[in-house]
Amino acid sequence: MHNKNIGNSNGQPQCPLLKMGSSGASVKKLQTRLAAAGFNPGPIDGIFGSLTRGAVLAFQKSKGLAQDGIVGIKTWTALGVDCHTPTPPPGNHCPTLQQGSTGPAVVKLQGLLKTRGFYTGNVDGIFGPVTRAAVVAFQGSMGLAQDGIVGIKTWTALGVDCHTPTPPPGNHCPTLQQGSTGPAVVKLQGLLQTRGFYTGNVDGIFGPITRAAVLAFQECMGLVMDGIVGIQTWTALGVHCC
Predict the structure, then answer these.
(1) Is 131 exposed, middle or buried (0-12, 13-18, 19+ CB in 10 A)?
(2) How far apart are CA 175 and CA 197, in angstroms?
(3) Distance between CA atoms of 83 and 59, rounded to whole angstroms?
(4) Is 23 left (phi over 0), alpha (psi -120 to 50) or beta?
(5) What is the spatial distance between Cα 234 and Cα 237, in angstroms, rounded to a whole number?
(6) CA distances, 57 to each of 14, 20, 50 (Å)
(7) CA–CA separation, 125 vs 110, rounded Å?
(8) Helix (H, G, I), strand (E, B), or coil: what is residue 150?
(9) Pseudo-torsion of CA 180, 183, 185, 188, nearest 10°?
């Protein structure tokens, strides 16, 4: 019965210890992350050979880690893997992303950055140097810490609600800001256009022109000029929010 705990990785299930000679899906994951971070591990074949070890050593050196060629929790963490908790499910939450991250959340991030004109690369779900540069530029434009790491503050600045599910469309007044999209933005743009504050396309995309119109309307109504459409701005636009 001594085998019963094999495969039971409750400690750090996402961060197995890898070294020269290791193989399997975890090594593929490692190789993908190294490549996304700009370090060439050779073919992404799931085999930890000399090329992969060389990439690990170079990565460890770049991060100030012990250069032992062994991938443990510190190296995984530096590669953007959260070793302590499962990856948050896609949807309403805001997973922390950084260079080396991959998956649907990165696709969402790249799309949002592209909409704002900060990202010109492929929306491929791989957080590489180009995506990081776009994140840093966006953070700078919003007055955030330019660390290239996408956390709650950066997601929120991109228009994502990190705390609650997206409010259902209908009688309520969802909070909108630059980066928001959908029917509620169409409604907002139409109301602003009717009042002469918005002259762009009613396309359901809350971009810089929509934000400028919101700011002008808020100033006209004596509201806080934050470019964010909350209950007070909706109410001033004639919408019954309750």
Answers:
(1) buried
(2) 19
(3) 18
(4) beta
(5) 5
(6) 20, 12, 10
(7) 8
(8) strand
(9) -160
Separation CA 160–CA 112 (nearest Å): 9
Question: What is the C-alpha separation between 215 and 225, in angstroms, rounded?
Answer: 5
Please give the mean pLDDT across all residues of the chain: 83
Find out whether 144 and 153 touch, Cβ atoms under 8 Å. Answer: yes
Tokens 């409750």 locate to 10
- In this predicted model, what pLDDT tens digit does every residue of 67-84 receive, in sequence order? 999 998 889 888 887 776
Structure tokens at 80: 């953007």
In whole angstroms, what is the distance from residue 6 CA to residue 203 CA?
Answer: 54
pTM: 0.35
Is residue 159 within 8 A of residue 180, CB to CB? The reply is: yes
214 HSE (CA, 13 A, CB side):
24
